[in-house]
Each structure stands twice: as structure tokens, then as C-alpha cells.
Design a protein that fits this description.
globular; 12% strand; 488 residues; alpha/beta; nine-stranded mixed sheet
């Protein structure tokens, strides 16, 4: 009986990994702009792009069952074509407009590829969209705070978010995994009539590529993975690995801010700036801050620098410092008018206007790995790291709604297949710590790694490093991987 069960399991795994062979129906391309207010679609159309909705199975193990659609954009090549380049910008999040962002970074090379981007299932324009109907929040991340009462509030908060999702999308949540997104991607590949595809992925987009390569070996041509994720770390608790990296990034920011104290008046030393910031968070815990129409409590206040630390440039540091100045003024009881950037961030954290984004992001992560179900596990972990992760441990190690949702249907994917990819990363990336890039390089013996010494998440085309950008473009143009190297 045991051997029979194993045999059946093996057959199911094979069926899931390999959808039925044969060409999918050709996409029915149409204009991307949906209405007068649709600036994204208008921009894709202006770039010469087209859009299509491609039908895929909700459950790839039941290809003749319920169907859903994934939204796809394509900006066709305008010069002799090198191939089709799939794009994913991370998240997990909608990616339909990635051709608009990747095109300028690729420069003249953009015209040599069909640039194809897909909103992953349940996100963006793909249908149905997972929206758990969170009326008061769009973003599920919160700090556990400094005491047990705050943590208990977060347990109740996350249980409530999970209950909303389960009620709204019981049929969709089990099928929201990256493995299914990879299967959808291969349906799109077949619909486009491509035997092999090239790929440019950032952050979570690198995890999607690694999963795709496991399920569909031999389908990739040239592959660039920017800020690569270690699949052993990816899942609902992936962020625990980066808590310390965020603390280090906060110290870097504090050094910049101390050097510019005449502008921000937050402290003249690193420790003084950090003391000011922690005092703001403590005040917000006692009495929530008022910033225009927003109420910012101790669970939300530390998320504001957290959302900005990925950009270690002077402009990124200055943005955090200016917003910390506003938080400090609010903590002192002064009237504060938020900047447009801060208003947008607080809208995401404290209202439900972006519930669709937060819901689908959460659904994919929860479907990609198991988490502890017992809240005490999270509390003990936070407490163990209070000294070395005082600000970000309570965020990154906090309980997730995934703890209250059904466990994933499939095991987490692990890298077992080599892939000759070009890996690109920054040594002080605080969102995907550099150790993960090194792990991916070790997992893929045929890959090559290009790094730059910077605090930056997403390097190609965004950091302005000529060495990195030229290396990526040369590889996509000619197909020859460079040697491992560090760019100045």
C-alpha cells in the first residue's frame, strides 16, 4: 500500500509539472488602454504595445476544469529579432507595464526583443483578482511593537485579515502559488509559439524564474536575475532573514542624516539619530501620531523608513530623513502636512484603497510555504532578537495572516537543476541580503555573478552603474556569460 501511494503521488507531481503538450490558442491582441483614466494602458499603447487575456486552468492538475485569465502585454521587436524576453519586476505584484521600465534600461537592445510581461494570476488585470476586502488596511505588514499587549493585538489583527481572505476567496487561495504562476507562464510561452524564452527578473521575479526552471527545464534561453532570491528562504517568513540587514541599513541612513543635521535636526551622531527615531516609535505606541487625516500608531510608524531603506543613494536617504523629521514633529504635537510621497505611503498602510495589491501579494506568499501556527513561536523569536533587531525584528519576525490560513497544497520548490544565468546584486541589499545571491550562485554552477558594493535593491537600470548595465546588455545581446566580477 505504501508503494502504491508513492506511485500515485509521483504521477500527480508529473502531471502538475508538465501541462498537456501542444500549442495553446494564439492570443487575441487588443489595445491596452481600458478607459480615459487608464494611464498605464495608454503608455503601453504609446510604446507600440498590445495586450491580451490568456486563459489558463485554475488548477493545472485539472486542465478541463474552471478557467481563469492572465493579462499579458507585448511590445514587439522593431529590429532583427533576437527572441522573446519575459519580464517580471518582483512583488509578487502586477507586472503588465514592465516593458515600459525595462525598455530604457535595455536601450537599443529593447528593439531586438519582443518584450512580454504578465500580471501573475489574481493580480492586476488578471481575472479573478484576489481582493480580501480589507476596508482599513491595504498592507498586512505591521510591527509587533515593544510589549506583549502590542503583539497580542497583532495576532488578532492577522487572524482577522486571514478570515476576510478565506471568506472572500476560499476557491482561489489554494491555487495562488508561484508554481502555478510558472505554469501559467509556460501556457503564455506556448500561446506565443515560442520554443524557448529569455527572461529578465527582479527580486521575487528571480524566485519565479528558479521555479519555472525546475518545472520546465530547457525552456530558457538567456536569463538575468537581479537581486536573486534563495528559494530556501522564500515563503511567508522570508523576511526574517533580512531583519538584521535592515538594522544595518538604518545605521547607514543615520550616518547620512547625522552628517546633514543642519537640514534635518535629528541628531549629530549615528546614535543620536537612532535615539530620536526610536523615541518617535515609542511616542506613537503611547499616543498615535496625527498626520493630516492619518493616525499613525506604533505598529505603523516603523514601516515608514522600512519602506524606503532599499534605496541607499543620497536621494533615498534624504527622503527617509525628511519623513522622519515630519514624524518627529508630529510626536512633539506639531501640526504636520505630509508630502505627496508620505501621503501615498500612509494611504497604503492605513486605508483599504490598495487592498487588491496587499491581498494578492499575501495569497501568493502563503501558498508558497508553511509557517508556524502557534503565535508563541513568533513571540519567542521576536524576544530573542530584541537587542540586535530592535526596530525591524518586530516587523520581519512578526506573525503573518498565513498562520491562520490553510497550508499550501504543494511542497516548497527547491533548486535541483542548473541554469546558466547572469546574476546581478548589491552587497548591502537589505531586502534580499547578499548571502542569498551567493547561495543562488552556488546552486547554479553554470551561472555567473556580478555585484556592486552598494545598499540597493534592484541594480540593473536603476542604480546607474555603467559596469553592471553594460554587462547585462552585452550578455542579452550576445549570449556569452561574463566571468564573476565586482563592479566599482
Amino acid at each position: 500500500m505504501k508503494h502504491a501511494i508513492l506511485a500515485v503521488t509521483a504521477l500527480v507531481v508529473v502531471a502538475l509539472a508538465t501541462p498537456p503538450a501542444g500549442a495553446s490558442p494564439a492570443p487575441r491582441w487588443h489595445a491596452c488602454q481600458l478607459d480615459h483614466d487608464d494611464q498605464t494602458g495608454k503608455a503601453i499603447d504609446a510604446a507600440g504595445g498590445q495586450c491580451a487575456d490568456i486563459s489558463v486552468p485554475l488548477d493545472h492538475a485539472r486542465p478541463h476544469g474552471r478557467r481563469i485569465t492572465v493579462a499579458v502585454s507585448r511590445i514587439p521587436a522593431t529590429k532583427p529579432k533576437l527572441g522573446t524576453l519575459f519580464l517580471n519586476g518582483g512583488g509578487p505584484a502586477p507586472a503588465l507595464d514592465m516593458g515600459l521600465f525595462a525598455g530604457p534600461a535595455l536601450e537599443d537592445l529593447a528593439g531586438r526583443y519582443d518584450l512580454v510581461a504578465m500580471d501573475p494570476r489574481f493580480t492586476g488585470r488578471s481575472r479573478p483578482t484576489v481582493d480580501c476586502g480589507w476596508d482599513e488596511v491595504s498592507e498586512w505588514r505591521r510591527s509587533a511593537g515593544s510589549d506583549r499587549a502590542g503583539f497580542d493585538r497583532m495576532v488578532a489583527f492577522n487572524r482577522s485579515l486571514a478570515d476576510d481572505c478565506r471568506r472572500a476567496h476560499a476557491a482561489e487561495l489554494p491555487h495562488a502559488s508561484t508554481r502555478n504562476i510558472a505554469r501559467d507562464m509556460d501556457v503564455v510561452r506556448r500561446a506565443l509559439g515560442e520554443r524557448r524564452i529569455s527572461y529578465l527578473g527582479f527580486s521575487y521575479g528571480t524566485a519565479l524564474a528558479l521555479v519555472y526552471n525546475e518545472l520546465f527545464p530547457g525552456r530558457f534561453d538567456r536569463v538575468v536575475l537581479d537581486s536573486p532570491m534563495d528559494l530556501r528562504k522564500w515563503g511567508p517568513m522570508f523576511s526574517a532573514d533580512r531583519a538584521r540587514a535592515n538594522e544595518d541599513a538604518l545605521r547607514e541612513w543615520a550616518a547620512y542624516t547625522a552628517a546633514h543635521d543642519t537640514t534635518y535636526h535629528l541628531g549629530t551622531t549615528v546614535d543620536a539619530v537612532l535615539t530620536t527615531a526610536r523615541a518617535v516609535y515609542a511616542t506613537a505606541e503611547r499616543t498615535p501620531l496625527r498626520i493630516a487625516e492619518f493616525t499613525v500608531d506604533g505598529h505603523v510608524a516603523p514601516l515608514i523608513p522600512f519602506a524606503r531603506l532599499w534605496n541607499g543613494t543620497d536621494a533615498g536617504n534624504a527622503l527617509i530623513a525628511s519623513e522622519m523629521r515630519l514624524l518627529a514633529d508630529a510626536a512633539a504635537g506639531r501640526a504636520v502636512v505630509p508630502t505627496p510621497q508620505l501621503r501615498a505611503l500612509l494611504t497604503e498602510f492605513t486605508t483599504g484603497t490598495l487592498s487588491r495589491y496587499g491581498s494578492s501579494n499575501l495569497a501568493i506568499m502563503c501558498a508558497d510555504g508553511t509557517v508556524p501556527r502557534d503565535p508563541e513561536r513568533y513571540w519567542r523569536d521576536i524576544q530573542r532578537h530584541r537587542a540586535d533587531e530592535p526596530v525591524f525584528g518586530p516587523i520581519e519576525r512578526n506573525i503573518r495572516p498565513c498562520a491562520f490560513l490553510p497550508p499550501p497544497r504543494e511542497p516548497a520548490t527547491r533548486v535541483t537543476r542548473d541554469l546558466p544565468a547572469l546574476l546581478v546584486g548589491a552587497t548591502r541589499d537589505n531586502l534580499v541580503p547578499h548571502g542569498q545571491a551567493l547561495a543562488v550562485r552556488a546552486d547554479l554552477p553554470s551561472s555567473r555573478l556580478v555585484v556592486v558594493d552598494a545598499r540597493k535593491h534592484v541594480v540593473f537600470g536603476d542604480l546607474g552603474n555603467t559596469c553592471v548595465d553594460d554587462t547585462v546588455r552585452a550578455y542579452l545581446a550576445g549570449g556569452a556569460l561574463p566571468a564573476d566580477k565586482t563592479c566599482p
